[in-house]
Design a protein that fits this description.
By secondary structure, the protein is mainly α. The protein is elongated. The N and C termini lie far apart (62 Å).
Length: 121
C-alpha cells in the first residue's frame, strides 16, 4: 500500500450501508409526503402557491440532505465523498420521480391521497 493511499471499508459494508441509507431516505420521503397530503388539496386551507412552495422546499431539503448524507457516508467508507453524494442525489431524485408518477397512476385508478392529492382528467 502506498503511503498516501487510504484503506477503504469492506465492499459488503459499503453496499449494505449504501442500500440501507438510500432505502431509508426514500422511505422517509414517502412518509413525509404522506403526512402533508392535505397541502395538495387546493380547495382546502391552502392555495396553489402555498402547495407549490411547500413541495419545492420539501424536495430541495431532501435532495440537499441526501447529498450531505451521501457525502458523509462516502467519506467514511472510502474517502469518495463527492462520488457518493452525487450517487445519492441521483438515486433519490429518480426515486422521487418514480413515487410521484406511481402515485398519479394509482390516483387515476381510484387510489388517491397516497403521497399527494391528484386530480385526473
Amino acid at each position: 500500500m502506498q503511503p498516501n493511499q487510504r484503506r477503504g471499508r469492506p465492499a459488503s459494508l459499503m453496499v449494505f450501508l449504501t442500500l440501507a441509507l438510500l432505502l431509508g431516505l426514500l422511505a422517509a420521503y414517502v412518509g413525509v409526503m404522506h403526512s402533508i397530503v392535505d397541502v395538495s388539496r387546493i380547495g382546502g386551507d391552502h392555495d396553489a402557491n402555498e402547495r407549490d412552495a411547500a413541495y419545492s422546499y420539501l424536495h430541495l431539503v431532501f435532495l440537499a440532505g441526501s447529498a450531505a448524507i451521501g457525502f458523509g457516508a462516502g467519506k467514511w467508507l472510502n474517502g469518495l465523498g463527492i462520488a457518493f453524494g452525487t450517487l445519492f442525489v441521483i438515486v433519490v431524485a429518480v426515486g422521487m420521480l418514480a413515487v410521484q408518477l406511481s402515485s398519479y397512476s394509482l390516483a387515476c385508478h381510484g387510489h388517491n391521497d397516497i403521497v399527494r392529492h391528484w386530480q385526473c382528467d
